[in-house]
Specification:
Length: 143
């Protein structure tokens, strides 16, 4: 069988393409921070309050909050009220990659009973539409 080479890239073109793709990927992990340490003896906010704060943050391109989109992978809260959140986005080249994590950190830090907030963007596991809540899928008419 004869191989069709009309759609193949030259070695130089392939190298250029790989270099361009590498430049689009994040060079390092992105972390957003907000808040101040809570005073000693302060009562920490509930996990439900934290989730509700995250639900106020929406991707401007998709009218669904980051929690229901399935972007929030983990929420860890210390006894001192500090909160660490692992979240992702649809892709490393997402145009709001530098905005949504900070908005999430700010929204959670605004709660009474929350100290320092750290939101770390992670890429593993990769986000897929199956991570969305049923409500989010219904909103986007995904079944």
């Amino acid at each position: 069988m004869k191989e069709d080479k009309t759609n193949m890239l030259s070695d130089d073109q392939e190298a250029e393409l790989l270099q361009a793709l590498a430049a689009q990927a994040p060079a390092e992990e992105y972390t957003a921070t907000a808040g101040e340490p809570l005073p000693a003896g302060a009562v920490a906010a509930s996990r439900e309050d934290i989730i509700n704060a995250l639900k106020t943050v929406c991707d401007p391109e998709i009218p669904i909050n980051i929690y229901d989109m399935g972007f929030v992978y983990d929420i860890r809260q210390s006894a001192a009220g500090d909160v660490e959140i692992d979240m992702t986005l649809t892709a490393p080249t997402c145009p709001v990659a530098g905005i949504l994590p900070q908005q999430a950190a700010d929204a959670v830090a605004a709660l009474v009973g929350v100290g320092r907030v750290t939101v770390k963007v992670v890429w593993e596991p990769a986000w897929t539409p199956d991570k969305m809540s049923e409500d989010a899928k219904a909103l986007l008419e995904i079944f």
